[in-house]
Structure formats: structure tokens, C-alpha cells
């Protein structure tokens, strides 16, 4: 007897909902901008 | 984390497609979250320092019944570990006095901004700085700036070493000395000056030359970091190599800086990374490279010293993006020419392999 779930059961398993935090690196065109409010 | 609050410098912004940006525009710090459903935006709005994580997750789920409890808790946990959130609960920090907290409040704000490691409280980097013990070897163009910066930052134990006296030609760049100091020992003047900058730390000084690795090994005994700001003796068997070996033997990191005209470069070495001799061996030989020419301005010397001090503070706080084992720097004649060199340990290196 196989332990493999039926295709229907696999389809019912929903991916967990969540978020992904993606750190910006310097390759991105909008990843850096000079500040217009530098402190001194 | 008891009462999560988005760090003020990392305040979230949302674009039209639902993307949430945290941390402004500084790469290495800022992040983006694809958030078409609004889960992250809502959770971040709830992170205002008034409610614990469990309550945030419960309110998030109340807003979005499509989320399970586990999913809502997962979203909150992801944000708490992102580096964009701090704990707004009162900070018990008996290691620092109220006066120290006032003095170093801007340093705390800086590390809150750049430190992406979740901490028990925001003063942790400053406490580490206070507990640090650093030797500054050389109090010239680089070392005078290093010593001032580390004293001002509140490094708890500083030892300053230099055999020379102040000369008039030093005053174009060596920040600790003034005209009446010409002829006096740099170590003595630096000690006086830095005690006026910060009387709450332990500073000692000696007018001594380091004439070999044995002397250097004794000098760093009991210290956490060496800031090498002396350039003699030069060459492959010189003071850099002494530092490489004695610091490896002692198990402490070291930072060295200097200038070759407009090229300001700093090396950061320590346990866990390729050593100075290995990185140096990886750099292609360059005919004519010579660090002996005396030309320097207060700007190039200051940059050298402040980069060294920055790396010392990075080492003692642990707030650094790149592990030791590299050179970096600035080429002042080329605004696009930031210098970086890292090469792997040589297989036969008895120091770092």
C-alpha cells in the first residue's frame, strides 16, 4: 500500500501565506539616492 | 521583543503596486516587501510600540480573516527579525550612566539605524564600545584621528603609543596638536587632549617605539583590538607582518590604515578571515607602488584615520556587513573608485588556513 497522497489531496494543500523581506543591494537602479537633507 | 516599534529611520512607505519600502534608500539597510494584500503594511502600522507581538498578530488576523493564526504570527515574526523594528519597552541599561547616555545619544541613534540585528535594547553597541580595550599604535596623521574618534565614541580603555615629538609640519593634518605643542611628546599631548575630550574613559599613553614582534605582542596583551597607525619598519617583514602574526597568535583583530597620496586604504583582519599576508599575496604586484612619499593633507589623513576608527568600532560592536580579511578605501581623484580587495587564504598559510 502506497503512502503517497492522492493527487487530489496534494492539490488541496495550500501554500502558507507570508511575506518576504528583500534587502536592497547596490545593483538596483533605485537602491541609492543622495540625501537632500544631509546632517552636519 | 516586548513592544515592537518600527525604527524611526526605517519608516515604511508604500508604492502604488503595494510594494512596501523600509529603511529609506540606503542599500544594505533598506528592504522591500511585495505586499499586494496589505499584510505587511498593516502589521507595520500596528508596530507602534504599544502592543506585544501576540496582540499584533491577533489584530492582523482580525483585519485579514484569510490568514490563519500561524500565518499571522509568521508575518509578525518575519518583520521582527528584519532589522527594521526595535523594542519600545523601557531600556534597562545599568552599564551606562545617564551622563553617558546623553553624551552618546547620537551614537545610539546611528547604530539603531545601521544595526540590523535584533537587540535586547538599543544601547547594546554602546555598552560594547564602553567595554572595549583598544591599542592605538602611532599618533600621526592616521593615528591622531583614530585616537580622537575612539575617545569621543567612548571606548572604555585606550592605550596610545608613539615615540615622536610634535613637529610644525605635523600641524597640517594631526588633529590632536597645536602650535604650543611643537617639541612635546605626541603621546603626552594626546593623553592630555583626549582626557579633555572624554574624562569618563580610561586612557594611558607611552612614548615608545615598537622595535619587533615581541614588543608588539607585549603591547597588545590584554587588549581586544589593535589600531595600527605606524608605518615603520616598512616592507614584507615590517610592522604590518608583525601585527598580522602577533594578533593572530593573540586571537584579536586589527585594523591598519594609511595613504598613498590620494589613495586612502585600510585593512581589516582578524579571526575567521584571510590574514593580511594572504590578502596581500593576492594583490597583483604594481611597479612603483610606494607608501613612503610624504604628501598628505588633513583630508586624506583624516579619511584614513576615520576609516580605521570606523572599522575598530565595527569590530567591537559586531555591527559590520563584511567579516575581516580585506582592504578597502577611497581614491580621492576618482569619485567612482572605491577600493576593495579580498583574497582567500593560501592553502599553506600557517596563520589563517
TrEMBL record, chain B:
Residues 123-334 form the THIF-type NAD/FAD binding fold domain. This is HesA/MoeB/ThiF family protein. It comes from the Bacteria. Coiled coil: none annotated. InterPro entries: ThiF/MoeB/HesA (IPR045886), ThiF_NAD_FAD-bd (IPR000594), Ubiquitin-activating_enz (IPR035985). The lineage of its organism: Bacteria, Bacillati, Actinomycetota, Actinomycetes, Streptosporangiales. GO terms for molecular function: nucleotidyltransferase activity; sulfotransferase activity; thiosulfate-cyanide sulfurtransferase activity; ubiquitin-like modifier activating enzyme activity. It comes from Nonomuraea montanisoli. GO terms for cellular component: cytosol.
